[in-house]
Design brief:
There is one protein chain. This protein is α/β, with parallel strands linked by helices. It contains 20 helices and 20 strands. It has helices spanning 32-36, 45-58, 76-93, 132-137, 153-159, 161-165, 247-254, 256-271, 292-299, 303-306, 311-320, 387-395, 410-430, 433-438, 444-452, 458-462, 474-487, 492-495, 497-511, 520-535, and strands at residues 6-9, 63-66, 96-99, 115-119, 125-129, 142-144, 173-175, 188-192, 199-203, 207-210, 215-220, 275-280, 324-327, 334-340, 343-349, 359-365, 369-376, 543-546, 552-553, 563-564. Strand 5 (125-129), helix 4 and strand 6 (142-144) form a beta-alpha-beta unit. Helix 9 (292-299) runs antiparallel to helix 20 (520-535) and helix 13 packs across helix 17. It is globular.
Length: 568
Amino acid sequence: MARPEIAVVADPHFHDVTYRPGGGGGTAFRSLANTVESTRVFNESFAALPALLDDIVRRGIEIVILVGDLSDDGQLSTMTRTCDLLKRYSSTHGLRFFATPGNHDLFAMHGRHQSKFFLDGDGTQTLVTSDPAVAAACAGDCILTDEIYCGGYPQSLGLMASFGFFKRPEFLHWECPFGQDDSLSARQFEIRSQDGSVVTPMTDASYLVEPVEGLWVLSIDANVFEPRNDAADLTAEKSYFDSTDAGWNSMLRNKRFILDWMADVARRATQQNKRLLAFSHYPILDTLNGTAPAEAELLNKTGFSRRTPSADVAKAAAATGIGVHFSGHLHLNDTAIARFGDDFIVNIAVPSTVSFPPAYKIVSFGEASLNVETVLVDNVPSFDMAFDAYRSETAQGGRDFSGVLAAGNHMDFLDRVLRQTVLARYLPREWPKDMATLVPLLRESDLVRLAHGTPMSAAEAGQTTTGGRGDLPFLDIVVDWYRLRHARSLAWELIGTDRLQKYRDLADLFAATAWPEGSVQAWLATFFSVMRAYLNAQESDCFSVDLSSGGIARPLPGRTVLRHTGTA
């Protein structure tokens, strides 16, 4: 049985910066100020996805798994151009794509409006929207066009039809949870509001395909568009809960039939000696290494902690017998495992190419193992194509991003953007105000002093800083915390062994004392305990999963060095 290598790509969020929807010419660059307040970059996706695909072609890989969020936000013009790019690589290079829809690819059955600001040549911005109400209220330059509307299941799946969602003559096998009829009318179920007052039909886009002999690719549509209680207009976005935070917690309640189908597929795969590769857009396990409660204690309910699957999800997933599941959505690099008696489930979270760290996974099957390698997408030609637009933005009166624009490659750019995102998004939006105020004031020596001192409040700690300049600023430590949160071991080289040891030492210092609740030391003890959990996480760069036991081992036989784009 042939065992080809398979590329697993998550969240490319492709955005064509060369085309402005609505006609009239011009580029479609988003502002850098908007970018650093997001969890991903926008313009750089235009160069990153072709660079990644070129790397896959160079390696001789043909099968490419797309773990959702192919497009920026599901806009019809953007989705069309994304699919055209992928189909061009199929016809020119023989790549075979198998996708699952993400929350940025479609919305329920009828879609939803989108609105985006694009930079003009002089650094000002024009609003492009599909929503007549938004256009009517716009005081500045505005373009109203249906091209930026995000489609629903019928429209968006029609655009993605070539990527496994429908039968093709070359497939050795194809099925969906409803049988072998691939028509969308045959692939619907009824979904109810929580009080049962609203019932509406909804498409499920899951499928199983055998693209080459012996390999089963299981694409699970984990989007859940649950109607709200007493929703009146089921064509309106406001009538549904967004799938963004729903994920597998909602799957367990609203699409339990998918888990039953997964179990049936896994049983047949074992009986027929098929290799099973399963994936959905959303993580099926906690990707925060068990730190979700601690993160909620530190930062209240962050997007990450809200999207953490419950223990009930983990148990149900393990019971299906699929063994290993690939996910995207959170733009992070992680491996997690849960065991329940003889049942286990491993979740491999795949990073995005438009967030730190930019990477994808290469997967191969051994006799009784699944081997995983991580490739950093650092060398991206024209990664800086938006830099002139960013400079015009700054000249128009925007913030000074000269530090970001000094980046030497794509990964360096994303790392610099992450630092700005800490300043522009995480600290002001997620951190307690008193702790966010402390970040620019404290240094490493202050933290050591606090760990050896008497309990105090954050306000008191801010009044007793040493003001030293010879040691590490707390802001740099916070940035490293987020680097590790998103990248795990992929961030080690950037941070350096000396700093990593400092963080372990600080975690030990704060853990040595039982600090009273409400003290700054108690908060810092939790902060560093979470950091230590990231440092001690499961292998997530190059590793092997034992398919009979779920055991995760390193190094991958025959490969011990992390690969980069353009390297063998």
